[in-house]
Design brief:
The protein is of the alpha/beta class. Helices cover 40% and strands 14% of the residues. Helix 15 runs parallel beside helix 16. It is globular. The structure holds 2-acetamido-2-deoxy-beta-D-glucopyranose (NAG) (5 copies). It comes from Rhynchospora tenuis.
Amino acid sequence: MARPFLISFLFPLCIIFLLICGGSTVAALSRDDFPSGFIFGAGTSAYQVEGAAAEDGRKPSIWDAFCHAGKMPDHSNADVAADQYHKYKEDVKLMHETGLDAYRFSIAWPRLIPDGRGEINPKGLQYYNNLINELLSYGIQPHVTLYHFDLPQALQDEYNGLLSTKFIDDFTAYADVCFREFGDRVKNWVTVNEPNVESLGGYDQGAFPPERCSYPFGNCTSGNSTTEPYIVAHHLLLAHSSVVLLYREKYQAEQGGKIGITILAIWFVPATEDPEDIAAARRAVDFHIGWLLHPIVHGTYPAIMRKIAGSRLPLLSKENFEKVKGSFDFIGINHYFTISVKSDPSQLKNKVRDYVRDMAVKISNIVSLDKALFRKYIKGLPVAPWGLSELLEHFKINYGNPPIMIHENGDFEEADSTNPVTINDDFRINYLEQYLEALNLSIRNGSNTQGYFVWSLIDCFEILFGYTNRYGIYGVNFNDTEKTRYTRSSARWYANLLGGKANIKGASRDTHLVKNIALQ
Ligand SMILES: *[C@@H]1O[C@H](CO)[C@@H](O)[C@H](O)[C@H]1NC(C)=O
Ligand SMILES: *[C@@H]1O[C@H](CO)[C@@H](O)[C@H](O)[C@H]1NC(C)=O
Ligand SMILES: *[C@@H]1O[C@H](CO)[C@@H](O)[C@H](O)[C@H]1NC(C)=O
Ligand SMILES: *[C@@H]1O[C@H](CO)[C@@H](O)[C@H](O)[C@H]1NC(C)=O
Ligand SMILES: *[C@@H]1O[C@H](CO)[C@@H](O)[C@H](O)[C@H]1NC(C)=O
Protein backbone atom coordinates (compact mmCIF):
# COMPACT_ATOMS: atom_id res chain seq x y z
CA MET A 1 0.00 0.00 0.00
CA ALA A 2 2.84 2.32 0.41
CA ARG A 3 3.94 2.27 -3.11
CA PRO A 4 4.62 4.84 -5.69
CA PHE A 5 3.41 7.60 -3.42
CA LEU A 6 6.58 7.19 -1.45
CA ILE A 7 8.49 8.25 -4.45
CA SER A 8 6.32 11.24 -5.07
CA PHE A 9 6.39 12.54 -1.57
CA LEU A 10 9.82 11.46 -0.57
CA PHE A 11 11.63 12.60 -3.62
CA PRO A 12 11.02 14.61 -6.71
CA LEU A 13 9.74 12.15 -9.20
CA CYS A 14 12.21 11.63 -11.96
CA ILE A 15 11.92 8.64 -14.17
CA ILE A 16 14.79 7.98 -16.46
CA PHE A 17 14.37 5.08 -18.70
CA LEU A 18 16.61 2.14 -18.70
CA LEU A 19 15.67 -0.39 -21.21
CA ILE A 20 16.18 -3.78 -19.76
CA CYS A 21 15.05 -6.44 -22.14
CA GLY A 22 14.63 -10.06 -21.58
CA GLY A 23 12.96 -11.01 -18.39
CA SER A 24 12.94 -14.75 -18.59
CA THR A 25 9.46 -15.91 -17.76
CA VAL A 26 9.28 -19.19 -19.54
CA ALA A 27 10.00 -21.86 -16.90
CA ALA A 28 6.74 -22.24 -15.01
CA LEU A 29 7.03 -21.84 -11.28
CA SER A 30 5.52 -24.41 -9.04
CA ARG A 31 5.01 -24.77 -5.33
CA ASP A 32 7.62 -27.53 -5.46
CA ASP A 33 10.26 -24.91 -6.23
CA PHE A 34 9.83 -23.71 -2.63
CA PRO A 35 10.74 -25.47 0.62
CA SER A 36 8.08 -27.60 2.26
CA GLY A 37 6.27 -25.55 4.88
CA PHE A 38 6.76 -22.35 2.90
CA ILE A 39 3.69 -20.13 3.40
CA PHE A 40 1.86 -18.61 0.44
CA GLY A 41 -0.77 -16.02 1.19
CA ALA A 42 -2.32 -12.69 0.31
CA GLY A 43 -3.07 -9.66 2.41
CA THR A 44 -5.19 -6.63 3.19
CA SER A 45 -5.54 -4.33 6.20
CA ALA A 46 -8.55 -3.43 8.31
CA TYR A 47 -9.24 0.15 7.28
CA GLN A 48 -8.55 -0.63 3.65
CA VAL A 49 -11.17 -3.35 3.24
CA GLU A 50 -13.54 -3.67 6.17
CA GLY A 51 -15.91 -0.75 5.75
CA ALA A 52 -18.64 -0.68 8.43
CA ALA A 53 -16.74 2.32 9.75
CA ALA A 54 -19.45 3.53 12.10
CA GLU A 55 -21.13 0.21 12.66
CA ASP A 56 -21.37 -2.02 15.71
CA GLY A 57 -19.49 0.31 17.99
CA ARG A 58 -16.42 1.09 15.91
CA LYS A 59 -15.14 4.63 16.43
CA PRO A 60 -12.96 6.70 14.10
CA SER A 61 -9.26 6.26 13.57
CA ILE A 62 -6.96 9.04 12.39
CA TRP A 63 -7.60 7.79 8.84
CA ASP A 64 -11.36 8.30 9.11
CA ALA A 65 -10.74 11.86 10.25
CA PHE A 66 -8.27 12.49 7.44
CA CYS A 67 -10.58 11.12 4.75
CA HIS A 68 -13.66 12.86 6.07
CA ALA A 69 -11.78 16.14 5.94
CA GLY A 70 -11.52 15.53 2.17
CA LYS A 71 -7.78 14.97 2.18
CA MET A 72 -7.64 12.08 -0.27
CA PRO A 73 -6.82 13.07 -3.86
CA ASP A 74 -9.99 11.32 -5.01
CA HIS A 75 -11.93 12.67 -1.98
CA SER A 76 -12.74 9.12 -1.00
CA ASN A 77 -12.98 7.41 2.34
CA ALA A 78 -13.18 3.82 3.52
CA ASP A 79 -16.58 4.02 5.21
CA VAL A 80 -17.65 1.08 3.05
CA ALA A 81 -14.45 0.12 1.19
CA ALA A 82 -14.74 -3.49 0.01
CA ASP A 83 -17.24 -4.21 2.81
CA GLN A 84 -15.27 -7.17 4.09
CA TYR A 85 -16.92 -6.71 7.47
CA HIS A 86 -20.08 -8.13 5.89
CA LYS A 87 -18.48 -10.22 3.17
CA TYR A 88 -15.69 -12.00 5.04
CA LYS A 89 -17.22 -15.42 4.44
CA GLU A 90 -17.24 -14.87 0.71
CA ASP A 91 -13.64 -13.63 0.84
CA VAL A 92 -12.46 -16.60 2.88
CA LYS A 93 -14.05 -18.84 0.27
CA LEU A 94 -12.06 -17.05 -2.44
CA MET A 95 -8.89 -17.62 -0.42
CA HIS A 96 -9.74 -21.29 -0.15
CA GLU A 97 -10.41 -21.56 -3.86
CA THR A 98 -7.10 -19.88 -4.57
CA GLY A 99 -5.30 -22.41 -2.38
CA LEU A 100 -3.86 -19.87 0.07
CA ASP A 101 -2.07 -21.18 3.15
CA ALA A 102 -2.55 -17.91 5.00
CA TYR A 103 -4.39 -14.60 5.07
CA ARG A 104 -2.63 -11.48 6.32
CA PHE A 105 -5.05 -8.96 7.81
CA SER A 106 -5.01 -6.42 10.59
CA ILE A 107 -7.20 -5.86 13.61
CA ALA A 108 -8.73 -2.40 13.76
CA TRP A 109 -7.82 -1.08 17.18
CA PRO A 110 -10.74 1.42 17.06
CA ARG A 111 -13.13 -1.46 16.40
CA LEU A 112 -11.86 -3.62 19.24
CA ILE A 113 -11.22 -0.86 21.78
CA PRO A 114 -13.00 2.14 20.29
CA ASP A 115 -11.60 4.75 22.69
CA GLY A 116 -8.08 3.40 22.39
CA ARG A 117 -8.06 2.15 25.98
CA GLY A 118 -10.63 0.78 28.37
CA GLU A 119 -13.84 -0.86 27.23
CA ILE A 120 -13.66 -3.72 24.78
CA ASN A 121 -16.33 -3.61 22.08
CA PRO A 122 -18.06 -7.03 22.17
CA LYS A 123 -19.16 -6.76 18.53
CA GLY A 124 -15.58 -6.04 17.50
CA LEU A 125 -14.41 -9.05 19.46
CA GLN A 126 -17.10 -11.14 17.81
CA TYR A 127 -16.13 -9.99 14.32
CA TYR A 128 -12.48 -11.00 14.64
CA ASN A 129 -13.42 -14.28 16.30
CA ASN A 130 -15.75 -14.97 13.37
CA LEU A 131 -13.12 -14.12 10.79
CA ILE A 132 -10.43 -16.18 12.50
CA ASN A 133 -12.75 -19.16 12.94
CA GLU A 134 -13.90 -18.95 9.33
CA LEU A 135 -10.27 -19.00 8.14
CA LEU A 136 -9.41 -21.94 10.37
CA SER A 137 -12.43 -23.89 9.18
CA TYR A 138 -10.74 -23.93 5.75
CA GLY A 139 -7.30 -24.58 7.20
CA ILE A 140 -6.11 -21.05 6.37
CA GLN A 141 -3.70 -19.55 8.91
CA PRO A 142 -4.49 -16.06 10.20
CA HIS A 143 -1.39 -13.80 10.10
CA VAL A 144 -2.44 -10.79 12.13
CA THR A 145 -1.06 -7.26 12.27
CA LEU A 146 -1.96 -5.37 15.42
CA TYR A 147 -1.35 -1.86 14.12
CA HIS A 148 -1.64 -0.93 10.46
CA PHE A 149 -1.81 2.91 10.48
CA ASP A 150 -5.28 3.13 12.06
CA LEU A 151 -4.65 4.77 15.43
CA PRO A 152 -7.84 5.49 17.40
CA GLN A 153 -8.65 9.18 16.91
CA ALA A 154 -9.39 9.37 20.66
CA LEU A 155 -5.69 8.87 21.43
CA GLN A 156 -4.67 11.43 18.83
CA ASP A 157 -7.01 13.96 20.46
CA GLU A 158 -6.01 13.08 23.99
CA TYR A 159 -2.22 13.14 23.81
CA ASN A 160 -1.08 13.55 20.20
CA GLY A 161 -0.94 9.82 19.54
CA LEU A 162 2.46 8.49 18.54
CA LEU A 163 4.24 11.61 19.78
CA SER A 164 3.52 10.62 23.36
CA THR A 165 5.07 7.77 25.31
CA LYS A 166 1.54 7.09 26.62
CA PHE A 167 0.98 5.46 23.24
CA ILE A 168 3.38 2.69 24.26
CA ASP A 169 1.28 1.70 27.28
CA ASP A 170 -2.03 1.90 25.46
CA PHE A 171 -0.70 -0.13 22.54
CA THR A 172 0.64 -2.77 24.91
CA ALA A 173 -2.70 -3.01 26.72
CA TYR A 174 -4.52 -3.36 23.38
CA ALA A 175 -2.08 -6.08 22.29
CA ASP A 176 -2.67 -7.87 25.59
CA VAL A 177 -6.38 -8.07 24.76
CA CYS A 178 -5.59 -9.45 21.30
CA PHE A 179 -3.22 -12.13 22.59
CA ARG A 180 -5.64 -13.11 25.35
CA GLU A 181 -8.70 -13.29 23.10
CA PHE A 182 -7.25 -14.59 19.83
CA GLY A 183 -3.85 -16.07 20.66
CA ASP A 184 -5.21 -19.59 21.15
CA ARG A 185 -5.82 -19.60 17.37
CA VAL A 186 -3.52 -16.91 15.94
CA LYS A 187 0.10 -18.08 15.75
CA ASN A 188 1.62 -15.31 13.66
CA TRP A 189 1.62 -11.75 14.96
CA VAL A 190 3.02 -8.50 13.63
CA THR A 191 3.20 -5.58 16.03
CA VAL A 192 3.47 -2.61 13.66
CA ASN A 193 3.17 -2.29 9.89
CA GLU A 194 5.63 0.04 8.14
CA PRO A 195 6.75 2.23 11.04
CA ASN A 196 9.23 3.81 8.62
CA VAL A 197 6.40 4.96 6.37
CA GLU A 198 4.12 6.24 9.09
CA SER A 199 6.88 8.34 10.68
CA LEU A 200 7.75 9.91 7.38
CA GLY A 201 4.27 10.28 5.92
CA GLY A 202 2.61 11.60 9.07
CA TYR A 203 5.38 13.67 10.65
CA ASP A 204 7.91 14.75 8.02
CA GLN A 205 5.94 15.51 4.88
CA GLY A 206 2.53 15.61 6.53
CA ALA A 207 0.93 13.71 3.68
CA PHE A 208 -0.58 11.13 6.05
CA PRO A 209 -2.69 11.68 9.10
CA PRO A 210 -2.10 13.32 11.52
CA GLU A 211 -0.57 15.70 8.92
CA ARG A 212 2.23 17.11 10.99
CA CYS A 213 5.22 18.85 9.42
CA SER A 214 7.08 22.14 9.41
CA TYR A 215 8.30 24.59 6.80
CA PRO A 216 9.82 24.05 4.27
CA PHE A 217 9.15 20.32 4.33
CA GLY A 218 5.42 20.44 3.90
CA ASN A 219 2.31 22.50 4.43
CA CYS A 220 0.90 21.71 7.85
CA THR A 221 -0.68 23.66 10.67
CA SER A 222 1.66 22.11 13.23
CA GLY A 223 4.55 19.75 13.58
CA ASN A 224 8.33 19.65 13.39
CA SER A 225 9.80 17.76 10.46
CA THR A 226 13.32 18.00 11.80
CA THR A 227 12.62 16.03 14.98
CA GLU A 228 9.21 14.36 15.02
CA PRO A 229 9.82 11.61 12.44
CA TYR A 230 12.69 10.35 14.61
CA ILE A 231 10.65 10.61 17.81
CA VAL A 232 7.68 8.80 16.33
CA ALA A 233 9.79 5.97 14.91
CA HIS A 234 11.45 5.69 18.32
CA HIS A 235 8.09 5.37 20.05
CA LEU A 236 6.94 2.80 17.52
CA LEU A 237 10.13 0.85 18.17
CA LEU A 238 9.59 0.96 21.93
CA ALA A 239 5.91 0.05 21.52
CA HIS A 240 6.91 -2.87 19.33
CA SER A 241 9.47 -4.17 21.82
CA SER A 242 7.11 -3.70 24.75
CA VAL A 243 4.50 -5.86 22.99
CA VAL A 244 7.07 -8.50 22.07
CA LEU A 245 8.20 -8.63 25.69
CA LEU A 246 4.60 -9.02 26.83
CA TYR A 247 4.01 -11.83 24.35
CA ARG A 248 7.19 -13.62 25.38
CA GLU A 249 6.60 -13.32 29.10
CA LYS A 250 2.89 -13.99 29.24
CA TYR A 251 1.75 -15.91 26.18
CA GLN A 252 4.38 -17.41 23.95
CA ALA A 253 5.19 -20.53 25.95
CA GLU A 254 1.55 -21.50 26.16
CA GLN A 255 0.31 -20.29 22.77
CA GLY A 256 3.39 -21.19 20.76
CA GLY A 257 3.15 -18.40 18.20
CA LYS A 258 5.69 -16.10 16.57
CA ILE A 259 5.92 -12.33 16.60
CA GLY A 260 7.68 -9.78 14.42
CA ILE A 261 7.49 -6.34 12.81
CA THR A 262 6.93 -5.38 9.18
CA ILE A 263 8.99 -2.72 7.43
CA LEU A 264 8.64 -1.13 4.02
CA ALA A 265 11.78 -2.26 2.24
CA ILE A 266 12.52 -0.40 -0.96
CA TRP A 267 15.91 -1.49 -2.29
CA PHE A 268 18.43 1.23 -3.22
CA VAL A 269 21.27 0.82 -5.68
CA PRO A 270 24.03 3.25 -6.72
CA ALA A 271 23.47 5.02 -10.02
CA THR A 272 27.17 4.82 -10.89
CA GLU A 273 30.31 3.01 -9.79
CA ASP A 274 31.48 6.16 -8.03
CA PRO A 275 32.30 5.26 -4.40
CA GLU A 276 30.27 8.31 -3.31
CA ASP A 277 27.20 6.88 -4.99
CA ILE A 278 27.88 3.42 -3.62
CA ALA A 279 28.03 4.95 -0.15
CA ALA A 280 24.84 6.91 -0.89
CA ALA A 281 22.91 3.76 -1.74
CA ARG A 282 24.07 2.12 1.46
CA ARG A 283 23.15 5.27 3.39
CA ALA A 284 19.66 5.24 1.90
CA VAL A 285 19.25 1.59 2.88
CA ASP A 286 20.44 2.34 6.42
CA PHE A 287 18.07 5.28 6.79
CA HIS A 288 15.13 3.50 5.25
CA ILE A 289 15.47 -0.07 6.56
CA GLY A 290 18.24 0.09 9.18
CA TRP A 291 16.29 2.77 11.05
CA LEU A 292 14.08 0.07 12.57
CA LEU A 293 15.95 -3.10 11.71
CA HIS A 294 19.34 -2.18 13.15
CA PRO A 295 17.98 -1.52 16.65
CA ILE A 296 15.88 -4.68 16.55
CA VAL A 297 18.78 -6.87 15.48
CA HIS A 298 21.80 -5.05 16.96
CA GLY A 299 20.31 -2.81 19.66
CA THR A 300 21.48 0.51 18.19
CA TYR A 301 20.51 2.90 15.41
CA PRO A 302 22.82 2.74 12.36
CA ALA A 303 26.02 4.67 12.99
CA ILE A 304 25.48 6.80 9.88
CA MET A 305 22.10 7.99 11.20
CA ARG A 306 23.60 8.91 14.54
CA LYS A 307 26.40 10.78 12.78
CA ILE A 308 24.08 12.80 10.55
CA ALA A 309 20.97 13.30 12.68
CA GLY A 310 22.92 13.74 15.91
CA SER A 311 20.81 14.54 18.93
CA ARG A 312 17.62 14.68 16.86
CA LEU A 313 17.77 10.90 16.89
CA PRO A 314 16.64 9.75 20.36
CA LEU A 315 18.99 7.62 22.41
CA LEU A 316 18.20 4.05 23.31
CA SER A 317 18.71 3.80 27.05
CA LYS A 318 20.46 0.75 28.49
CA GLU A 319 17.10 -0.62 29.60
CA ASN A 320 15.50 -0.09 26.19
CA PHE A 321 18.53 -1.54 24.44
CA GLU A 322 17.91 -4.80 26.29
CA LYS A 323 14.24 -4.77 25.34
CA VAL A 324 14.68 -3.80 21.70
CA LYS A 325 17.62 -5.99 20.76
CA GLY A 326 16.40 -9.36 19.59
CA SER A 327 12.71 -8.40 19.80
CA PHE A 328 11.62 -10.49 16.84
CA ASP A 329 10.99 -14.05 15.76
CA PHE A 330 10.84 -12.95 12.12
CA ILE A 331 11.10 -9.76 10.10
CA GLY A 332 8.28 -8.85 7.74
CA ILE A 333 9.17 -6.90 4.62
CA ASN A 334 6.96 -5.08 2.16
CA HIS A 335 8.86 -4.82 -1.11
CA TYR A 336 7.66 -3.25 -4.34
CA PHE A 337 10.52 -1.68 -6.24
CA THR A 338 14.15 -0.62 -6.47
CA ILE A 339 15.45 2.93 -6.75
CA SER A 340 18.85 4.01 -7.96
CA VAL A 341 20.45 6.97 -6.22
CA LYS A 342 23.35 9.39 -6.39
CA SER A 343 25.03 11.06 -3.48
CA ASP A 344 23.86 14.61 -2.73
CA PRO A 345 26.08 15.97 0.03
CA SER A 346 24.73 19.50 -0.57
CA GLN A 347 21.67 18.44 1.44
CA LEU A 348 23.80 18.34 4.56
CA LYS A 349 24.78 21.99 4.14
CA ASN A 350 21.21 22.96 5.07
CA LYS A 351 21.11 24.02 8.69
CA VAL A 352 17.49 22.93 8.97
CA ARG A 353 17.17 19.35 7.91
CA ASP A 354 14.48 16.71 7.95
CA TYR A 355 14.91 12.97 7.57
CA VAL A 356 14.95 13.23 3.78
CA ARG A 357 17.71 15.85 3.72
CA ASP A 358 19.62 13.81 6.29
CA MET A 359 19.64 10.95 3.80
CA ALA A 360 21.62 13.15 1.37
CA VAL A 361 20.76 11.29 -1.79
CA LYS A 362 19.01 12.16 -4.97
CA ILE A 363 16.99 9.82 -7.06
CA SER A 364 18.58 8.88 -10.31
CA ASN A 365 15.80 6.62 -11.46
CA ILE A 366 13.29 4.06 -10.53
CA VAL A 367 14.85 0.96 -11.92
CA SER A 368 12.47 -0.25 -14.53
CA LEU A 369 11.42 -1.07 -17.96
CA ASP A 370 10.55 2.09 -19.83
CA LYS A 371 7.07 2.70 -18.50
CA ALA A 372 6.07 5.42 -20.91
CA LEU A 373 7.12 3.49 -23.95
CA PHE A 374 5.49 0.29 -22.84
CA ARG A 375 2.45 1.72 -21.12
CA LYS A 376 0.40 -0.13 -23.66
CA TYR A 377 1.66 -3.42 -22.34
CA ILE A 378 2.85 -2.89 -18.84
CA LYS A 379 0.84 -1.10 -16.25
CA GLY A 380 1.90 -0.26 -12.76
CA LEU A 381 5.26 -0.71 -11.18
CA PRO A 382 8.63 -1.31 -12.73
CA VAL A 383 9.78 -4.89 -12.49
CA ALA A 384 13.24 -5.36 -11.01
CA PRO A 385 13.17 -8.75 -9.31
CA TRP A 386 16.94 -8.82 -8.80
CA GLY A 387 16.34 -5.93 -6.37
CA LEU A 388 14.51 -8.35 -4.11
CA SER A 389 17.43 -10.78 -4.31
CA GLU A 390 19.88 -8.06 -3.35
CA LEU A 391 17.63 -6.97 -0.51
CA LEU A 392 17.47 -10.51 0.86
CA GLU A 393 21.24 -10.80 0.47
CA HIS A 394 21.56 -7.62 2.58
CA PHE A 395 19.49 -9.23 5.35
CA LYS A 396 21.61 -12.34 5.09
CA ILE A 397 24.99 -10.63 5.28
CA ASN A 398 24.30 -7.70 7.61
CA TYR A 399 21.51 -8.92 9.84
CA GLY A 400 22.35 -12.55 10.50
CA ASN A 401 19.92 -14.00 7.96
CA PRO A 402 16.78 -13.66 10.08
CA PRO A 403 13.58 -15.54 9.24
CA ILE A 404 11.76 -13.31 6.75
CA MET A 405 8.16 -13.06 5.71
CA ILE A 406 7.55 -11.11 2.52
CA HIS A 407 4.35 -9.50 3.69
CA GLU A 408 3.62 -7.39 0.65
CA ASN A 409 4.63 -7.60 -2.98
CA GLY A 410 2.35 -6.76 -5.86
CA ASP A 411 1.53 -4.43 -8.68
CA PHE A 412 -1.15 -1.83 -9.31
CA GLU A 413 -3.25 -0.66 -12.19
CA GLU A 414 -4.98 2.66 -12.40
CA ALA A 415 -8.75 2.47 -12.15
CA ASP A 416 -10.39 2.71 -15.55
CA SER A 417 -13.20 5.27 -15.55
CA THR A 418 -15.08 3.37 -18.23
CA ASN A 419 -14.74 -0.10 -16.75
CA PRO A 420 -15.50 -0.75 -13.08
CA VAL A 421 -13.37 -3.92 -12.90
CA THR A 422 -10.64 -5.13 -15.19
CA ILE A 423 -10.14 -8.87 -15.43
CA ASN A 424 -7.10 -9.40 -17.59
CA ASP A 425 -4.03 -8.45 -15.64
CA ASP A 426 -1.17 -10.18 -17.39
CA PHE A 427 1.07 -7.31 -16.32
CA ARG A 428 0.45 -8.36 -12.70
CA ILE A 429 1.13 -12.03 -13.43
CA ASN A 430 4.36 -10.99 -15.11
CA TYR A 431 5.34 -8.95 -12.05
CA LEU A 432 4.46 -11.63 -9.48
CA GLU A 433 6.06 -14.39 -11.48
CA GLN A 434 9.34 -12.58 -11.88
CA TYR A 435 9.54 -11.70 -8.19
CA LEU A 436 8.74 -15.28 -7.18
CA GLU A 437 11.41 -16.58 -9.53
CA ALA A 438 13.92 -14.25 -7.88
CA LEU A 439 12.72 -15.45 -4.48
CA ASN A 440 13.18 -19.05 -5.54
CA LEU A 441 16.80 -18.32 -6.39
CA SER A 442 17.42 -16.37 -3.18
CA ILE A 443 16.05 -19.13 -1.01
CA ARG A 444 18.24 -21.66 -2.79
CA ASN A 445 21.14 -19.31 -2.18
CA GLY A 446 20.52 -19.43 1.56
CA SER A 447 17.93 -16.72 2.31
CA ASN A 448 15.80 -17.66 5.30
CA THR A 449 12.55 -16.42 3.74
CA GLN A 450 9.63 -18.46 5.02
CA GLY A 451 6.55 -16.91 3.48
CA TYR A 452 5.22 -14.71 0.70
CA PHE A 453 2.02 -12.67 0.65
CA VAL A 454 0.65 -10.94 -2.43
CA TRP A 455 -0.65 -7.44 -1.89
CA SER A 456 -3.56 -7.52 -2.21
CA LEU A 457 -6.17 -10.24 -2.01
CA ILE A 458 -8.91 -7.94 -3.21
CA ASP A 459 -8.91 -4.35 -4.40
CA CYS A 460 -8.60 -2.03 -1.43
CA PHE A 461 -8.97 1.56 -0.44
CA GLU A 462 -5.32 2.42 -1.17
CA ILE A 463 -3.36 4.65 1.16
CA LEU A 464 -3.09 8.04 -0.58
CA PHE A 465 -4.69 6.77 -3.79
CA GLY A 466 -8.14 5.84 -2.55
CA TYR A 467 -9.91 3.83 -5.21
CA THR A 468 -7.86 5.03 -8.16
CA ASN A 469 -5.16 2.36 -7.77
CA ARG A 470 -5.99 -1.33 -7.71
CA TYR A 471 -3.73 -4.08 -6.43
CA GLY A 472 -6.17 -6.98 -6.04
CA ILE A 473 -5.78 -10.39 -7.60
CA TYR A 474 -9.55 -10.27 -7.14
CA GLY A 475 -11.19 -7.11 -8.45
CA VAL A 476 -13.90 -5.27 -6.56
CA ASN A 477 -16.58 -3.22 -8.26
CA PHE A 478 -16.63 -0.25 -5.90
CA ASN A 479 -19.39 1.34 -7.96
CA ASP A 480 -21.92 -1.32 -7.12
CA THR A 481 -23.49 -1.41 -3.69
CA GLU A 482 -22.80 -5.13 -3.43
CA LYS A 483 -19.05 -4.54 -3.91
CA THR A 484 -19.01 -7.63 -6.11
CA ARG A 485 -15.71 -9.53 -6.39
CA TYR A 486 -14.32 -10.60 -9.76
CA THR A 487 -11.65 -13.20 -10.40
CA ARG A 488 -8.72 -11.66 -12.23
CA SER A 489 -6.33 -13.64 -14.40
CA SER A 490 -3.73 -13.27 -11.67
CA ALA A 491 -5.96 -15.05 -9.15
CA ARG A 492 -6.28 -17.95 -11.59
CA TRP A 493 -2.52 -17.91 -12.11
CA TYR A 494 -1.91 -17.94 -8.33
CA ALA A 495 -4.46 -20.74 -7.89
CA ASN A 496 -2.62 -22.72 -10.55
CA LEU A 497 0.67 -22.19 -8.78
CA LEU A 498 -0.77 -23.19 -5.41
CA GLY A 499 -2.92 -26.05 -6.60
CA GLY A 500 -6.12 -24.22 -5.66
CA LYS A 501 -9.31 -26.19 -5.92
CA ALA A 502 -11.38 -23.95 -8.12
CA ASN A 503 -11.29 -21.09 -10.54
CA ILE A 504 -8.23 -22.45 -12.20
CA LYS A 505 -9.76 -23.50 -15.45
CA GLY A 506 -9.50 -20.91 -18.09
CA ALA A 507 -6.21 -19.75 -16.67
CA SER A 508 -4.93 -17.65 -19.49
CA ARG A 509 -1.54 -16.19 -19.61
CA ASP A 510 0.33 -14.82 -22.54
CA THR A 511 3.68 -16.35 -21.74
CA HIS A 512 5.18 -14.43 -24.61
CA LEU A 513 4.29 -11.07 -23.13
CA VAL A 514 7.79 -10.04 -22.27
CA LYS A 515 9.19 -11.40 -25.49
CA ASN A 516 6.64 -9.50 -27.53
CA ILE A 517 7.54 -6.29 -25.81
CA ALA A 518 11.20 -6.80 -26.49
CA LEU A 519 10.40 -7.23 -30.16
CA GLN A 520 8.36 -4.02 -30.54
C1 LIG B 1 14.22 -22.50 -8.94
O1 LIG B 1 15.60 -22.59 -8.63
C2 LIG B 1 16.23 -23.76 -9.12
C3 LIG B 1 17.67 -23.77 -8.64
O2 LIG B 1 18.36 -22.64 -9.06
C4 LIG B 1 16.14 -23.84 -10.64
O3 LIG B 1 16.68 -25.05 -11.10
C5 LIG B 1 14.68 -23.74 -11.05
O4 LIG B 1 14.59 -23.66 -12.46
C6 LIG B 1 14.04 -22.50 -10.44
N1 LIG B 1 12.65 -22.45 -10.82
C7 LIG B 1 12.17 -21.47 -11.57
C8 LIG B 1 10.76 -21.60 -11.97
O5 LIG B 1 12.82 -20.50 -11.87
C1 LIG C 1 -0.68 25.53 2.05
O1 LIG C 1 -2.05 25.26 2.31
C2 LIG C 1 -2.88 26.40 2.23
C3 LIG C 1 -4.27 26.02 2.69
O2 LIG C 1 -4.70 24.85 2.04
C4 LIG C 1 -2.82 26.93 0.82
O3 LIG C 1 -3.62 28.11 0.72
C5 LIG C 1 -1.39 27.26 0.44
O4 LIG C 1 -1.31 27.63 -0.91
C6 LIG C 1 -0.49 26.04 0.65
N1 LIG C 1 0.89 26.42 0.44
C7 LIG C 1 1.73 25.68 -0.25
C8 LIG C 1 3.14 26.20 -0.33
O5 LIG C 1 1.41 24.63 -0.77
C1 LIG D 1 11.90 21.62 16.08
O1 LIG D 1 12.46 21.17 17.29
C2 LIG D 1 13.80 21.59 17.50
C3 LIG D 1 14.33 20.92 18.76
O2 LIG D 1 13.46 21.14 19.81
C4 LIG D 1 13.85 23.11 17.59
O3 LIG D 1 15.18 23.54 17.73
C5 LIG D 1 13.26 23.68 16.31
O4 LIG D 1 13.19 25.09 16.41
C6 LIG D 1 11.87 23.12 16.06
N1 LIG D 1 11.39 23.58 14.78
C7 LIG D 1 10.15 24.01 14.59
C8 LIG D 1 9.78 24.38 13.19
O5 LIG D 1 9.35 24.14 15.51
C1 LIG E 1 -17.84 4.95 -10.70
O1 LIG E 1 -18.42 6.02 -9.98
C2 LIG E 1 -17.65 7.23 -10.06
C3 LIG E 1 -18.28 8.27 -9.16
O2 LIG E 1 -19.49 7.85 -8.61
C4 LIG E 1 -17.59 7.70 -11.50
O3 LIG E 1 -16.82 8.86 -11.58
C5 LIG E 1 -16.95 6.61 -12.33
O4 LIG E 1 -16.93 6.98 -13.70
C6 LIG E 1 -17.70 5.30 -12.17
N1 LIG E 1 -16.94 4.29 -12.87
C7 LIG E 1 -17.50 3.45 -13.71
C8 LIG E 1 -16.57 2.54 -14.39
O5 LIG E 1 -18.69 3.39 -13.86
C1 LIG F 1 24.52 -16.02 -3.08
O1 LIG F 1 25.11 -15.94 -1.80
C2 LIG F 1 26.47 -15.55 -1.80
C3 LIG F 1 26.95 -15.61 -0.37
O2 LIG F 1 26.14 -14.82 0.46
C4 LIG F 1 26.61 -14.17 -2.40
O3 LIG F 1 27.97 -13.81 -2.47
C5 LIG F 1 25.99 -14.16 -3.80
O4 LIG F 1 26.01 -12.85 -4.31
C6 LIG F 1 24.57 -14.65 -3.75
N1 LIG F 1 24.03 -14.74 -5.08
C7 LIG F 1 22.85 -14.19 -5.39
C8 LIG F 1 22.39 -14.37 -6.79
O5 LIG F 1 22.15 -13.59 -4.60
